[in-house]
């Protein structure tokens, strides 16, 4: 069956049309999509009957196999052009939720990037917060990065591997942007390289410092930040919650986790309840080995922001690590209920179910991992779990 025959309709106008859903949608709950359809002037239908104008197939159910079968009468209606079949992706495009032709399953979450690059997740999230990598789209609090941003992240990872700290990288890139105001993202807009402890611009055959001077002595030990008079934030005592949070990030970069935890607690004390800060504190507590404290803070973040998917997923991972597998399954299932397209949660849920000996339940989540992102760092493991005979 040609599920995207409606692509001939370039306008994607759903106004006045009766729309039915077949199978389970990956991007929204049924209630959410019905609301979006009504806002677009369409009439969502719970049933497939002869009054339906458009049938939407869930992203992973494009053959018509779902809770409701496509009757011969409806297929005949489609053949006459009076009924359109479209995919879930096409529906999002028609509703204006994503750009036309944007691919949804070739994107990477922070956890995927972390595994791919061998960089801690908190560094990936920091790059996101600082704008060094920009998501192609974001579903609630979860960013997804496309291959262009993966390339940028690889450059950043290479800089880390060369010995530059995350803080130093950010300061040097910021100095470049200050000198060249039209350049907001040097790694994307310019040709740069690392020489010793410095990030330099390529110009012709030479290397240029952000101040405009040619680099003649490539072995000098000058500190880039001194050259550009960048003030060390530790010179001032933090007063605001944001300043305490920034100080925590500095300590985290230096692996002084106890100090970072103290600063994040101060940020929460001054700034009041915050899901994001509670999440960051949970991450610090986890890295420092305070697993019970991390679990408590993940719960706090979820209470403040129930749709914080990463908090739910990470809670599940820490619960599994502490041997509380049944609770871990519950937390991971709740993450999937918030957003069923979250590959990370399906992966960890599959592993936890396998550990509990519930292989049949795990199989559906291994399959989902492969469907959502066949190129993910976890694809080989998922395939091996589903096909042990191939080992």
Report on the structure:
The protein has 391 residues and is of the alpha/beta class. It folds into 3 domains: 90 residues, BRCT domain (Rossmann fold), CATH 3.40.50.10190; 124 residues, no CATH class; 154 residues, Alpha Horseshoe (Serine Threonine Protein Phosphatase 5, Tetratricopeptide repeat), CATH 1.25.40.10. 50% of the residues lie in helices and 9% in strands. The strands form 3 sheets. Strands 2-1-3-4 form a 4-stranded parallel beta sheet. A 3-stranded antiparallel beta sheet has the order 7-8-9, covered by helices on one side. Strands 5-6 form a two-stranded antiparallel ribbon. The protein is globular.
Give keywords:
four-stranded parallel beta sheet, 3 domains, 9% strand, 50% helix, 9 strands, 391 residues, Serine Threonine Protein Phosphatase 5, Tetratricopeptide repeat, Rossmann fold, globular, 18 helices, disordered N terminus, alpha/beta
């Amino acid at each position: 069956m040609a599920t995207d025959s409606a692509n001939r309709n370039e306008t994607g106008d759903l106004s006045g049309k009766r729309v039915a859903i077949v199978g389970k949608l990956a991007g929204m709950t049924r209630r959410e999509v019905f609301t979006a359809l009504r806002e677009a002037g369409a009439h969502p239908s719970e049933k497939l009957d002869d009054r339906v104008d458009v049938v939407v197939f869930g992203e992973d159910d494009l053959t018509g196999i779902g809770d409701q079968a496509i009757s011969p009468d409806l297929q005949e209606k489609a053949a006459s052009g009076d009924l359109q079949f479209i995919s879930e992706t096409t529906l999002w495009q028609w509703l204006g939720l994503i750009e036309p032709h944007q691919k949804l399953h070739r994107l990477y979450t922070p956890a995927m990037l972390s595994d791919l690059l061998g960089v801690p997740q908190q560094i990936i999230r920091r790059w996101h917060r600082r704008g060094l990598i920009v998501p192609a789209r974001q579903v609630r609090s979860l960013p997804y990065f496309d291959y262009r941003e993966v390339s940028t992240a690889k450059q950043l990872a290479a800089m880390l591997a060369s010995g530059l700290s995350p803080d130093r990288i950010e300061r040097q890139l910021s100095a470049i942007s200050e000198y060249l105001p039209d350049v907001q993202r040097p790694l994307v807009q310019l040709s740069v390289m690392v020489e010793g402890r410095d990030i330099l611009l390529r110009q012709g055959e030479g290397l240029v410092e952000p101040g405009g001077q040619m680099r003649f002595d490539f072995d000098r030990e000058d500190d880039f930040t001194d050259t550009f008079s960048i003030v060390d934030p530790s010179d001032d005592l933090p007063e605001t919650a944001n300043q305490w949070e920034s100080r925590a990030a500095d300590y985290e970069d230096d692996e002084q986790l106890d100090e970072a935890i103290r600063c994040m607690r101060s940020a929460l004390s001054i700034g009041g309840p915050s899901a994001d800060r509670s999440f960051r504190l949970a991450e610090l507590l986890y890295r420092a080995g305070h697993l019970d404290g991390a679990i408590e803070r993940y719960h706090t973040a979820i209470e403040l922001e129930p749709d914080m998917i990463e908090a739910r997923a990470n809670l599940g991972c820490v619960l599994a690590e502490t041997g509380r597998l049944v609770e871990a399954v519950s937390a991971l299932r709740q993450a999937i209920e918030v957003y069923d397209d979250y590959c990370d949660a399906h992966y960890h849920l599959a592993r936890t179910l396998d550990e509990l000996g519930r292989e049949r339940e795990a199989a559906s989540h291994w399959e989902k991992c492969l469907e959502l992102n066949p190129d993910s760092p976890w694809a080989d493991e998922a395939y091996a779990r589903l096909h042990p005979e191939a080992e």
